[in-house]
UniProtKB/TrEMBL annotation:
InterPro entries: AhpD-like, Uncharacterised_peroxidase-rel. GO terms for molecular function: peroxidase activity. It comes from Pseudonocardia endophytica. This is Putative peroxidase-related enzyme. SUPFAM superfamilies: AhpD-like (SSF69118). Keywords: Oxidoreductase, Peroxidase.
Length: 193
């Protein structure tokens, strides 16, 4: 990867660091993500200003949405991430996860519609509607999460570890949304192709 790959400041309100300025772990992470996706996502480029902190945050975030990992099915984690991003009004994450959710559901239209407003998607399963409602409440009004909300997740068959993972996904995306919104990270061209 060349230095010019990370040099554009048009993707963020703040400076986008050159690749050679970054800690080795972050350089390796960006290189791996670029090889996997075929392009370097603007969010990882913009977040790179955080250096070692960005590498740790990225590793946490990427692990939570690893299609081959996690305690919850990947599609459930994408529902949580997409709804959280939509509720927070994060255009970058909303566009990114509309596509990922659409792929996970096998229906890009539903993924896009969830990213606009899950409440209007009557095709959502009861499970995904419950997860979406939980993500919405936790993302916007965490003090309003009640025992009944937790019990609703248990009624889906989630154990405490899976509920905790759901909380982690929402909380991590609340943070990522805040970074993306404040930095005004420009959505990748790939989201529109």
């Amino acid at each position: 990867m060349t230095a010019e790959v990370l040099s554009s400041t048009t993707i963020s309100r703040l400076r986008v660091p050159e690749i050679d300025e970054l800690p080795a772990a972050l350089r390796d992470q960006i290189s791996s993500l670029t090889a996997q996706l075929g392009y370097t996502p603007n969010w990882v480029r913009a977040f790179a200003l955080g250096g070692a902190h960005a590498a740790r945050f990225n590793a946490y975030l990427l692990a939570l949405l690893d299609p081959n990992g996690g305690l919850l099915p990947y599609v459930d984690r994408e529902i949580l991430a997409t709804v959280t991003s939509a509720e927070n009004g994060c255009s970058y994450c909303r566009l990114n996860h509309a596509g990922s959710l659409g792929e996970a559901l096998g229906d890009k239209r539903i993924g896009t519609r969830v990213a606009i407003d899950y409440r209007e998607v009557r095709e959502l399963s009861a499970r995904h509607r419950t997860l979406a409602g939980f993500a919405s409440r936790l993302a916007l009004h965490p003090t309003d999460v009640t025992d009944a909300d937790i019990e609703g997740l248990r009624e889906l068959g989630l154990d405490d570890e899976q509920i905790y993972e759901a909380i982690q996904v929402v909380a991590a995306f609340v943070a990522a949304n805040r970074f993306s919104i404040v930095l005004q990270v420009t959505p990748d061209d790939q989201f529109f192709g």
